[in-house]
Structures are given as structure tokens and as C-alpha cells.
Amino acid sequence: MPKFAPPPIVAPETWRALFAAASAFAAAKPWETLYDSDVAGLLDPITGEKRVGCVLGNAGQVFAAVFYRRAAGLRWILNVLNEPPDAPEFADAEGIDCLKLEFVPKRELTPPDLEAIASAGFKAVGRGSVWPQFRSAEPGWHPWYIDQAEAQQFLADVPRLTAFCAMRRAQPDLFSGRAPAEIPFLPASLPDRPLRAEDLDWQPLIAPPTSDFAPFTAAEEQLAQLRALHPLPTSTFEYECALLPGGSFLENGRPCYGRLSLLVDHRRGLVLGLDVSSGASPRGEAAGRGLVKTLVGNGFMPGNLMIRDQKLEPVLAPLCAALGLRLKVSARLRGVEEAVRSLDHFMQAHP
Predict the structure, then answer these.
(1) Which of 58, 98, 231, 277 has its CA 20 to 30 A from that of 90?
(2) Residue 342 CB contacts under 8 Å (≥ 6 apart), including other chains
């Protein structure tokens, strides 16, 4: 049976400081007045890296502080702020990159969580969702335990977010008239007094570009295999390449989401090819590899290929052009949707 890797080592004195910072944050009860759209910009005091912090819990369900980091994390939260109706949920793993301090019931703590709590001599106040749990989330991976560097980031960011929440509570109109992606950045070091509005540096942020959707280039050997397939010029296949959370597995001892490449006959709804790869690999690269593998495994070359994610069009267009395959983007892929539902039901019935 596969074994989980041990969690990274964090110094005991760091754990004590982390739980102290978490206690101060929880005591302020920021979720009573802040929404998840009330974000704060944070500059790393050493590297100058930009991060965005927010508070969850106004809906009374998940109580947490979340810190979005690096290009993927900033892109994810800025997309949410700019397009909330179509934005992914906070649990979406496709592109999320963040650190999360969540307050959970004690029954949800794992043995490593309990060991960290014991090493720090921490005791929660109250009942219910009052136990701090620190996690690191990266694109394609399940949330994992933090390392020493991430712990230091928490120590830099949690007190500043706590100070911002106190100021936000006193100034309910702070975001009035501001654009969704105009972010109030806090000083790298907090002043020796309560934070004030004049301490903030409002900056419009633009989602960083992504390199995950570069055109896929097939090897000559792969092209030769594809061109040798039996042609079906009047047929249409549907193709999807997306995360399948229920198909997770361990990679180097760490839980990783599975990425499903699925090829379906458009007219008959028959599954023609299926492949699961690591969700941590770049999506465009995985989509190209998956299409090659499912087409070769199926043995037939259609005349038309339908996809529903417009981002994958420039990824697959060069390959399709080389094969004389007409590529079309469609909002609905009924065959793929039915196949995914069936696969999901099967996995739930056979955990």
C-alpha cells in the first residue's frame, strides 16, 4: 500500500509563534465584518514578492485566512475578483496557489497537526472550529503540510492581515469606489500603532500571464503513429483534459489530483480513449500528450475534434492542422459530460 511522505520539519519555536499569531487572528473574529472580496496586498519583507490575503467565514462555514502567492495564485484570486459570477470556487485546484490558515474542529486534525500543537503547548479557546490548521496548496496538488519557509511566510502575513482586519472593521467604506482588482497594499513592516488608511498603497493588479497553454509539439515518431491511424473523415470525436479530483493518487508520497484525458465518439457517446496523468503537470502539455495517447490507443483518426475549453485551442491547433483534423470549440460536450458522470458514480461506488 502506498505510503504518505512525512511532513516537512518546522522548528518548535516557529510553531509556538504560529499558534500565537493564529490565536490573535481568531480572537479578532474578522469574518464577522469582512467578506472574501475584502482583500489586502502584502509585500514579502525580504523578497518583495506580492501576495494577496483575504478572510473566509462571513457565510458561517469555513473560517480561514488565505494568502495567494506567486503568479498562479495571484492570477486565480484576481480572476475571482474581476469575474465573480463565473469564477471557480475556493476549493478549485486547477490553478490555486496559496497558504491557508483554517480553524477546524479537533476531529479534523491529523496526527502531524496534533504533534505540532503538542510541541507548541497550544490550547484552543472555545469549542467547534477553533483549532488552527496550516496548509500549503499548489496547482494540481491536494493541500499539504507547510515547511519552514512557508511557516515564515505565515509569520510575516498573519499579523499584518490581523491589523488590516481591525482597520477594515473601523472603516466599513474602505473599498467604496474602488475597482475590484485595485488592491490596498500594507507596509512591509507594521507601524507601532494601529494601521490607518493613509498607510495603504492602492495598486491596480493585472493577472500575470500563464505559460501553461503553449502550443503542443508532437515528436516525429508520434506524428508518424497518428498519420498511420485508420481515417474516419466524417466522424467527430469529443476531447476533454481536466482535473478529476476523485481520481487522485500519491506522487512521491504526496496526494496529487489526477488529470483525465478523455476521448468520446460524438454521435454514439462511446468512450474511445482514457488516460490519467499527474494534475501537477502543465495543463497544455498534458492535453497534447493525452490527445496523442488516446488517439493512438483508439486506432482511428476522425475528421473533426470538439473541445470545450477555449484555452486549449491554441495548444492543440498546430497538431490538428498537421493531421488535417478540424478543431472546434463547443460550450457543451454531451458525450464527455455523460462519461465523466458515469466515471464519477463508479468511483463513488468503488472507493
Answers:
(1) 277
(2) none
